[in-house]
Amino acid sequence: MAPARHTLLLAHLPPGPGLRWNLPEQAGMRTAVARALAPLGDDPRLWSELLRHAPGFEGSLPELVAAVVAGSPPGRQGPAAPAAATDGALARAVRHLAPTAAEPVTGGVERELALASLAVPMETVQEDIRWVRDCLDRGLLTGADVVRHKLPACWALDEDHCLGDVDHPDRHDRPGAVLAARAEADRLFALALGEDPDAWWRVARTLPDFAGTLPHLLLRVTDGDSVSTRP
Fold first, then answer.
1. Dihedral of the CA atoms 51, 56, 60, 62 (nearest 10)?
2. Which among 85, 33, 91 is positioned nearest to 64, based on CA atoms?
3. Contact predicate 73/66, CB 8 Å
4. In whole numbers, what is the pLDDT of the chain averaged over residues?
5. 227: which residues sit within 8 A by CB, 6+ positions away?
6. Burial 58-89 (b: 16+ CB within 10 A, else e)
7. Mean pLDDT of the 90-95 span
8. 84 vs 17: which has the higher pLDDT
9. pLDDT at 65
10. What is the crossing angle of helices 61-70 and 23-37, to 10°?
């Protein structure tokens, strides 16, 4: 999408009337924008340059990012910055998308016990789901914890099974946990598979029958071990 500033704004729509994403759309948009911004890494200088050039840049976000990383002045500048640059919306969007240090999760011993419990299945899936949601509500676990230590790999891409409202597929009672889980799954995929199409294809073929977690699956695929869980 061009220009770049529109893409940045669409990835972080502020509360209020007007255009809105539902939660799966919001997660997908953030994933796409995060991939475009990945070359900036966590370099604050590059993020500052992105914000400085974005208001008047007429090209797409990947074009702007490439120019910023290369250290060359971005071309295709418009005659004037749009209103978004003056009211702070664009700056807020960039701050929201930029990498930040993870906030420490509180809970002490209770959190350690909650993490340990993720590896122990309860008698029914419903009990498992109730326990996970209770821990999320008490701040003992995050959506990222659930993806790393609990969800079967195929569920990591379908949060409705555990983190959403199962009776209403388009509604979610814990949106923060859903977005955190999706972001963690995207991060793990990018870290393990990169741009290797063969590795992505091996994961896609194995995913439906694999009983372990997503990190377990990705480790097996990248190590070249057998990942089949069939008898």
1. -30
2. 33
3. no
4. 78
5. 202, 206, 210, 217, 220, 221
6. bbbbebbbebbeeeeebeeeeeeebebbeeeb
7. 86
8. 17
9. 92
10. 30
Q: What is the rounded CA–CA span in Å between residue 209 and residue 214?
A: 12
pLDDT, position 66: 92
- C-alpha–C-alpha distance, residues 127 and 132, integer Å: 9
Residue type, 56: G
Who contacts 74 (Cβ-Cβ below 8 Å, separation ≥6)? 53, 57, 59, 63, 64, 67, 68
The pTM of the whole model exceeds 0.85: no
Task: Determine how many CB atoms are found less than 10 A away from the CB of residue 178.
Answer: 21
Output the CA–CA distances (angstroms, integers) from residue 161 to 32, 166, 178, 197, in the order listed: 23, 6, 11, 28
Residues in Cβ contact with 99 at an 8 Å cutoff, skipping those fewer than 6 apart:
41, 42
* CA angle centred on 188, ends 102 and 71, rounded to 5°: 75
To 10 degrees, the CA torsion angle through 160, 162, 167, 171?
A: -50
134-182 pLDDT, tens digit each: 888 888 888 888 888 887 887 777 766 667 655 555 556 677 788 888 8
| Residue type for position 121 | P
